[in-house]
Predict the 3D structure of the following.
Amino acid sequence: MNRLKTMVLVGAIAIISSACILSCDSGNSNGGEGQESQTTIINGSVANVMASAEKNDKSFRLSEIIEILSFIKEAKAQGGILVTAIVDGITVASDFTDPQGNFTLAFDLDSATSVLILFDVNGTEVSIGIVAEEGSIINLVVNINLDAPSGEEVVIVDIDDIIPAIRCENGSLNISDNTNETLIIDGNGEDCIRTTGNCSLFINQDNLILTNCEKCVDARGTSDVTLLSPNSDIICEAQEDGIRTVGNAQVVLDALDNIDITAGENGLKADGNSFISIGADTCIIDSFEDLVDVNGNAEVDTSGCGEILIAGPTSTPSPLPQPSASPTPSP
């Protein structure tokens, strides 16, 4: 029986822009003919493979004592490890680690799917299962202990997801996974999140980053968007408005530590009867134009911010509004 050994897999983070769309469940698809497949990418790197030194000579008691008292670990080569992605029992991608231990798996998915990642280290196979969204980019950090009990050899230490821009018109979409350290939404120059109609979007993530956005959130109609980071930060980087609401839309951002909004136009812009609420220990707004732009009967609530920092110039400096408490969001 093969001795179980230890391997550390360090994820190489590579932000790859994608124009794919993650849609809400809805009876009305923009494409009209079902969901299209989107390319999912898993990046990683095997740092080293640790193995218990095997003693073949069991003739002398002294050798046995030394083996028990000196549990020696030795590093193995990083290159040449076969890494395979398996979906529903079918191999969808495979790669060998290079001399530095890097590998990449790319395959098409048409919905969120369980993916088995199999590592073959000199004939010893161990695996880990993850759920991958279609069109996402996943960067893994895992520990693989081949000395652990069966089924416990692989433990995820860190996993970063990068998903493409989110579009939602009807129905609801819930993305909640606090085992992930970071979720990155890459807008690829378009709105990172755009909701219309009666869409309800709920994201609960340890750390949430919206980057390369035209607007971080553009909510219209009667849609509502709730972004939660119960253990860390929400970061928004937008070329135009940071958070924009129109009509009767509602957007709520709530983070434990920081909400950091960088906007090429307005930080928070609400029109019509819409509503924006942000709350965190520290709220940072760096906008080229207004920090807050409110029109009609719209409201912006920053009363949940323990401290508000203005990090950039504004065209019409004005105090941030502090209206009454916002309605409690529901997933």
Summary: The chain has a mean pLDDT of 77. The chain has one helix and 27 strands. Residues 165-331 form one domain. Residues 15 and 162 are 7 Å apart (CA to CA).
